[in-house]
Amino acid sequence: MQRGQESLDAVKVRTLPVQVAAHLTRRIVSGEIEDGRAPSELDISQEFGVSRVVARETLKILASLDIVEVAQGRRVVVRPPAEWDYLSPLLIEWLPTEIVGDLLQELHQMRVLLEPELAAMAAAVVTDESLDRLQAGIDRMAELEADPNAYLEVDHEFHMEICRAADNRILDRIMYSARWLGTASRRITNEAPAALRKATADHTEIYEAIVARDPDRARAAMRKHLANNSALLAEKEKQTRRASRRR
């Protein structure tokens, strides 16, 4: 019983710093901290009524996301927003909708730069084992067009399999690191009418180009797929901004 209570206390200590870090991040984003100086460990402890351990863990979380830096003399300063870790699911969860929308557009720009070339690379060197996995992904997507959540996971794995087939470990890790934003992006594009049926058709076209081991065709098919996604993201962004203006 004592061990169980200790485990419960440990969970509380971990979750409370996350809650405080989320609150402080939103305060920073809103511009409430104007001089660039973030609350210190003592400030956090006093304002939120938490222990120094919780306050210290809060600052560690913010520092791990590159939001703050603990300078000499334990002065805590806010880092430039351009340097924050936007690939972290925690930070994405804490940011306002309009900022996340901008990040999804930037993610799409990255995908346009990388994924057509990854598809071309995969077409040139793909193995039979990778082709089997891609085929299984296509078959599964066709079965899941009425289940957006399940489809999303198979969709992500299909694109990662193309990345693995390209046989470049650095590009693989870049794509993997962006998976949280990629999930958020796919949730938006999957909402459109008949989006999943169209996505399956796009994925099939990409797959067939890779099967044919035709890099140019694979590159073009991936570009077409991403262009379709771009249109869906742009339409969603327009809807979000219109709704924001009506509030």
Description:
The protein has 247 residues and is an all-alpha fold. It has helices at residues 2-29, 41-48, 52-64, 89-94, 97-125, 128-143, 148-165, 169-177, 179-189, 195-211, 215-246; strands at 68-70, 76-78. A two-stranded antiparallel ribbon has the order 1-2. A hairpin with a 5-residue loop joins strand 1 (68-70) and strand 2 (76-78). Helix 1 crosses helix 3 (52-64). The termini are far apart. The model is unreliable at 1-8 (pLDDT under 50).
Short description:
Pfam families: FCD (PF07729), GntR (PF00392). The chain has 247 residues and is mainly alpha-helical.
* Largest sheet descriptor: 2 strands, antiparallel
Bin the helical content: over 70%
User: Can you list the strand order of the major beta sheet?
Assistant: 1-2
What structural class results from the helix and strand content? mainly alpha
Poorly predicted tracts of residues: 1-8
- Share of residues in strands: under 5%
The averaged pLDDT comes out at 89
Q: Count of helices? A: 11
Shape descriptor reads elongated
How much is the radius of gyration in Å? 22 Å
Secondary-structure element string = HHHEEHHHHHHHH
Between the first and last Cα atoms, what is the distance in angstroms?
Answer: 51 Å
Topology, number of strands: 2
Layout: helices, strands, pairs:
Blueprint: H1 2-29, H2 41-48, H3 52-64, E1 68-70, E2 76-78, H4 89-94, H5 97-125, H6 128-143, H7 148-165, H8 169-177, H9 179-189, H10 195-211, H11 215-246
Protein name: GntR family transcriptional regulator
InterPro entries: GntR_C, TF_FadR/GntR_C, Tscrpt_reg_HTH_GntR, WH-like_DNA-bd_sf, WH_DNA-bd_sf
Pfam families: FCD, GntR
